[in-house]
Amino acid sequence: MTLLADEGIILRALAFGESDKLVTWYGPHVGKITAIAKGAQKSKKRFCNKLEAFSCVQLSFRPPRSQVGLSFLEEAELLSANLRIRHNHLKYVAAMYVAEIVLRFTKEHDPDQDLYNLLKWATAALELNERFLKIPLFFHLQLLGLSGYRPGFTQCSHCDQVVTPRQVFTFSLHHGGILCANCQDMGERDQVPLSIQTCKMLAHAQDVTFETLRRIQPAQHSLREGLNVLHAYSQYLLQTDLHTWRILRDLLQQEQIAY
């Protein structure tokens, strides 16, 4: 069987049997891959400290023999351990949220270079940035766009009225965009409140560079609103909840945290 190689960000590593690990990563050329790392739980050289969540790793693996089988991980070379994420509970929770979004919105063997670049930016930013909670917000926002579910924040998704400072908007989960005051009365139940300040911040953050994202500093209420809207929209799309959301939501309610 052909040996394949790719760089990747480890999304999840689980114990598998007594000595193996089941590892899932996302790479620029192979996409999301789940593979068995034989003997990884007891490895003192080949896989030791190389398969931790959120690490950036160069991986060599053998693809499955059938469409329903698993790949086999042969070698791993650590490129960046991102230790600050794993040693800081708050950053770890934010990174878990990022990883879960990737796991939920991607398919196996379906690569997207832009998504990998976004994921690599998010892990690097969490490793270095103290205002960590804006990272999962901007990551979630841009991943939705890359996945074909770009939310609309610049005009009413029903009548196309452009956002103005005096309007009161809600976010329609069904339409995937905001509704103006007039269109909110159509009887649609799946609406989430959203301030004009948060609308403008999210609209601006959808298409800018990573360097610009680094400079954007959302107000606390916009950070809360933005994450709440994107979570509700993703829950609507996936028809299931994100397990890490409750932990992240609890962090958002702690006023003493530096967002």
Describe the structure.
The protein has 259 residues and is of the alpha+beta class. It folds into two domains: 4-81, Nucleic acid-binding proteins (OB fold (Dihydrolipoamide Acetyltransferase, E2P)), CATH 2.40.50.140; 86-252, de novo design (two linked rop proteins), CATH 1.20.1440.120. The chain is built from eight helices and eight strands; from the N terminus they run βββββααααβββαααα. Helix 5 (196-205) packs across helix 7. The termini are far apart. The model has no long low-confidence stretch (mean pLDDT 92).
Concise account of the structure shown:
With 259 residues, this protein is an alpha+beta fold. The chain has helices at 83-87, 89-105, 113-128, 134-146, 196-205, 210-215, 220-238, 245-252, and strands spanning 4-16, 20-27, 31-37, 56-62, 71-80, 169-172, 177-179, 191-194.
Secondary-structure map:
Blueprint: E1 4-16, E2 20-27, E3 31-37, E4 56-62, E5 71-80, H1 83-87, H2 89-105, H3 113-128, H4 134-146, E6 169-172, E7 177-179, E8 191-194, H5 196-205, H6 210-215, H7 220-238, H8 245-252
Parallel strand pairs: 3-5
Antiparallel strand pairs: 1-2, 1-4, 2-3, 4-5, 6-7, 6-8
| Helix count from the secondary structure assignment | 8
Helix content: 25-40%
Question: What is the name of the CATH architecture of the largest domain?
Answer: Up-down Bundle
Largest sheet: 5 strands, mixed, barrel
Number of strands: 8
Overall morphology: elongated
Average pLDDT, rounded to a whole number, is 92
N→C terminal distance: 48 Å
CATH superfamily of the largest domain: Recombination protein O, C-terminal domain
Under the CATH scheme, which class of the largest domain?
A: Mainly Alpha
Major sheet strand order: 1-2-3-5-4
Q: In percent, how much strand structure appears in the residues?
A: 15-25%
How large is the radius of gyration? 20 Å
CATH topology of the largest domain: de novo design (two linked rop proteins)
* Count of distinct structural domains: 2
Query: How does the helix and strand content classify structurally?
Result: alpha+beta
Q: Could you spell the SSE succession in H and E letters?
A: EEEEEHHHHEEEHHHH
Task: Detail the poorly predicted runs.
Answer: none
